[in-house]
Every structure is written in structure tokens, then in C-alpha cells.
């Protein structure tokens, strides 16, 4: 099992409303998910409105089921421009909105345990960072359908145990998550650097950063 990258000569399958949106069997993904209160509602609403406006300005209907496929077909310059929306969302997450329960070491350890549980069995776990209100992870070597199930399993398993630890109930994770199909080895190393740099403003003990040996 190893990390494989996007090959344009191999067919790509597309899913909507789940992770990942773009897939090649056994490919590698950069995945982010966040706690339910990590982004203020007005910020989230404005971000979605700005993204929808950008899509329409580029001839893409955001209500179209395959709008992501249409974004991928845009010229490289336009595609890079669209990625600015993901970066803007990541900056909001780094502002540490919400209760930030993953700052608690025991809660972060629950997420880490979920990520490692089937490593090298069902998937190959890459570098990850568990931040106070979100998680970044690189993962590969797993077929699409199993990937969809695994991400939901990580979230469901960790949410139930963190809620139990905190003595609370209700939704812990935001339903939607973000994914990015890793297109090259260079992109892979760039994402590893991004993960490593994500916690730089935090104090030791407020995050978990793990590096694949």
C-alpha cells in the first residue's frame, strides 16, 4: 500500500454531497472536516454566496449536480483562482471560532485513535493535524466507496466518544467536509508542509501533529 497520485489517463469518478467528490481508485486525498460551531453562520452564508457568484461568473450553475466537474475543466489559472475559496475557509478555521473542544488533549487523542485504528489495513494514513476545531489529514490506498464509509466512521466514532467525555449531546461535527484529490508528488509534499505549518500559532498541547515515518 502506497501513496498514488492523480493520473489524467485513468478515468475519474464523481460523487456529490459526500467525500470525496473526485476519485481515482487508490488515489490520495487531502481531507478536512470541522466541528459544528467552527465557522459563524453569517461567515458561512457569505462564503457560500461568494462561491456561487464566482461560479456563475465563470459560466457554471452552482445548483448543477456536476458543477465540480465543470470547475475541473476550467483553464488552470481559473482553477487556481477557485481554490482561493478553500484557502479562505481554512483561514476562518484557523481563527479558532467556537468552543474548540479538540484543544483538550483527551478529545484530540480520541480523533487520533480513530485515524490510526485501521492504518495499513483499510487505508494508508498520511500526515495529519488535529486542530482545536478541525482536522486535516492525508490518506490514500483505499477504494472510493470504502473511503466514503471510512470518513463517516471516523466522524461518527469520534463524535460519540468525545460527547461522552465532555458530558454533552448533539451534533459534534459539521456534516459537510472538504476534500482535495492530490494530483502530484509535488502537491503531496506541499500539503505535508501546509499540515506541519497549520499549528504554528498554537501552544504545545493545543494540537496534535503526526508525520508518516
TrEMBL record:
Checking InterPro entries in the record gives:
RAYT_transposase, Transposase_17, Transposase_17_sf
Transposase IS200-like domain: from which residue to which, for each copy?
Answer: 24-198
Give the SUPFAM superfamilies listed for this entry: Transposase IS200-like (SSF143422)
- Transmembrane segment boundaries: none
What superkingdom does the record give? Bacteria
Q: Name one Pfam family in it.
A: Y1_Tnp
What PANTHER family does its record include? Answer: REP-ASSOCIATED TYROSINE TRANSPOSASE (PTHR36966)
- What is this protein's name? Transposase
Q: Which organism is it from?
A: Luteolibacter arcticus
The lineage is: Bacteria, Pseudomonadati, Verrucomicrobiota, Verrucomicrobiia, Verrucomicrobiales
